[in-house]
């Protein structure tokens, strides 16, 4: 429910760089601005105003998702910007970077501005990413500089890999002077034809065509070689981001590249931190994602990559589909799962001590903003707030009726998770989602 003013009582503040970092504080908010922050019980407050109070509240900078499918324009039956924004806020996200795979593709200034304008009046800020190549088919460039100046925060062909090495090389060169980030989803397409799940013992047992880790690793190796080649030349340094790592080999390739000093970053989808190919034995199409769930060794390697800094950020890879696209035989169903509302809970639940809560939150807050060159939210009195209030111990079970997204293709329906957003605040707007809010009677 929306609230203009709010007192958040006894919340632990996760704000590295702030004098209040890791301290329990009361926060008084009026019209979306932090008017006072102090030790618990020291703020005089109008007793008629709403109070947010719980046993284990935490406050951090507003969470930022680096990878979500908008589906609007063109596929509004799956998701539109309004339902996506509601799902994002309910999941604790105040900012979301959107992939360009809509209809039409986000490859014009008008396409970028359509997404930006919608987010201007919403609590959730939308950051459009523009296509790297026209129609994301890898044959010709988009007008990248025009798109950059129009507000595109990164360049990617989204769910499609940048298979054309020459265009990827020239795009890295072209965007380097403006600090533009190139994002590639690595998959060598000819090795992935007709693949349905991870290639291994489970795919053999189920009789399904496999998607080998080699398809991911070959393209990462190619991209890193191209990046290394460009660094031997004079001029501004390019920036490459590898999306959706899923295998032991992929993590190790990025790890070694960072040790050599290459300007490369990477992310992982929250659901890949939780599930393996063993989960597909029931042929649940909500578990059909790309890249596919791989083995337990791969899952643990992803956590290790987060812990040592090889992987910079965790993403939702929110990919909504309607019933007609998912309630099919497994080989006919579309790839993709929704994740905006469950991503934090999934990562928090399956984090078996690999990351501290502070480090886990950093993967949703500072890391994605630094990659995109966006300002970090500040905790200062009389400043507009961009923050997420959450309870990392709250247990809940996702259900179709309880989700805000128009799509319901979640791999975690009926599974008890731990950790959930309680409220989000951004651009002068306050939204409380859980029953921690106390409103005194008149």
How would you sum up this structure, described in words?
The chain has 442 residues and is an alpha/beta fold. The chain folds into 2 domains: 5-59 and 381-438, Urease, subunit C, domain 1 (Roll); 61-372, Metal-dependent hydrolases (TIM Barrel). The protein is built from 13 helices and 20 strands. The chain has helices spanning 81-90, 109-120, 144-150, 165-175, 189-192, 201-206, 213-231, 248-259, 296-307, 323-326, 343-349, 357-362, 366-372; strands at 5-14, 24-30, 33-38, 51-53, 58-61, 63-69, 93-99, 125-128, 155-156, 181-184, 197-198, 210-211, 239-242, 264-269, 313-315, 383-384, 386-396, 417-426, 429-432, 437-438. The strands form 4 sheets. Strands 1, 2, 3, 4, 5, 16, 17, 18, 19 and 20 form a 10-stranded mixed sheet that branches. It has a 5-stranded parallel sheet with strand order 9-10-13-14-15, sandwiched between helices. Helix 4 crosses helix 7, helix 7 packs parallel to helix 8 and helix 8 runs parallel beside helix 9.
User: Mean pLDDT, rounded to whole units?
Assistant: 95
Radius of gyration: 21 Å
| CATH T-level topology of the largest domain | TIM Barrel
CATH class of the largest domain: Alpha Beta
What's the total count of β strands? 20
**Silhouette:** globular
Helix content: 25-40%
Number of domains: 2
Low-confidence stretches: none
Oligomer: single chain
User: Structural class of the secondary elements?
Assistant: alpha/beta
- Proportion of β residues? 15-25%
The name of the CATH superfamily of the largest domain reads Metal-dependent hydrolases
The number of helices is: 13
Looking at the overall shape, the CATH architecture of the largest domain is: Alpha-Beta Barrel
- Main sheet summary: 10 strands, mixed
Whole-Å distance between the termini?
Answer: 18 Å
């Amino acid at each position: 429910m929306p609230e203009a003013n709010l007192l958040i009582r006894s919340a632990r503040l996760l704000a590295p760089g702030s004098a209040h970092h890791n301290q329990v504080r009361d926060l008084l908010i009026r019209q979306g601005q932090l008017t006072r922050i102090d030790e618990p019980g020291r703020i005089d407050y109008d007793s008629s105003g709403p109070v947010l109070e719980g046993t284990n509240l935490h406050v951090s900078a507003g969470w930022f998702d680096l990878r979500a499918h908008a589906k609007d324009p063109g596929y509004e039956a799956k998701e539109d910007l309004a339902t996506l924004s509601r799902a994002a806020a309910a999941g604790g996200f105040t900012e979301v970077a959107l992939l360009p795979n809509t209809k039409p593709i986000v490859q014009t200034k008008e396409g970028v501005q359509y997404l930006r304008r919608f987010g201007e009046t919403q609590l959730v800020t939308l950051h459009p990413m523009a296509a790297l190549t026209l129609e994301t088919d890898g044959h010709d460039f988009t007008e990248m500089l025009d798109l950059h100046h129009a507000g595109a925060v990164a360049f990617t062909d989204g769910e499609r890999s940048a298979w054309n090495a020459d265009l990827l090389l020239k795009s890295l060169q072209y965007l380097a002077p403006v600090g533009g980030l190139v994002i590639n989803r690595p998959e060598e397409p000819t090795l992935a034809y007709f693949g349905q799940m991870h290639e291994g013992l489970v795919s053999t047992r189920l009789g399904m065509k496999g998607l080998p880790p080699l398809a991911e690793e070959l393209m990462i190796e190619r991209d890193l070689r191209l990046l290394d080649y460009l660094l031997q030349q004079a001029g501004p340094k390019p920036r490459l981001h590898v999306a959706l790592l899923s295998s032991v080999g992929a993590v190790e390739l990025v790890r070694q590249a960072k040790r050599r000093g290459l300007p490369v970053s990477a992310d992982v989808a929250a659901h890949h931190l939780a599930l393996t190919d063993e989960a597909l034995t029931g042929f649940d199409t909500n578990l059909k994602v790309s890249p596919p769930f791989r083995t337990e060794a791969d899952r643990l390697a992803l956590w290790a990559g987060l812990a040592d800094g090889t992987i910079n950020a965790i993403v939702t890879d929110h990919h909504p589909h309607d019933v007609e696209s998912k309630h099919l035989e497994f080989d006919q169903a579309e790839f993709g799962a929704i994740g905006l509302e469950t991503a934090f809970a999934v990562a928090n639940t399956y984090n078996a001590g690999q990351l501290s809560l502070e480090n886990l939150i950093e993967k949703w807050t500072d890391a994605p903003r630094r990659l995109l060159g966006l300002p970090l939210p500040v905790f200062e009195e009389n400043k507009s707030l961009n923050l997420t209030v959450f309870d990392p111990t709250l247990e809940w079970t996702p259900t179709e009726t309880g989700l805000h997204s128009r799509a319901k293709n979640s791999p975690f329906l009926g599974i008890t998770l731990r950790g959930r957003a309680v409220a989000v605040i951004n651009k002068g707007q306050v939204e409380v989602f859980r029953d921690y809010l106390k409103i005194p009677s008149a």
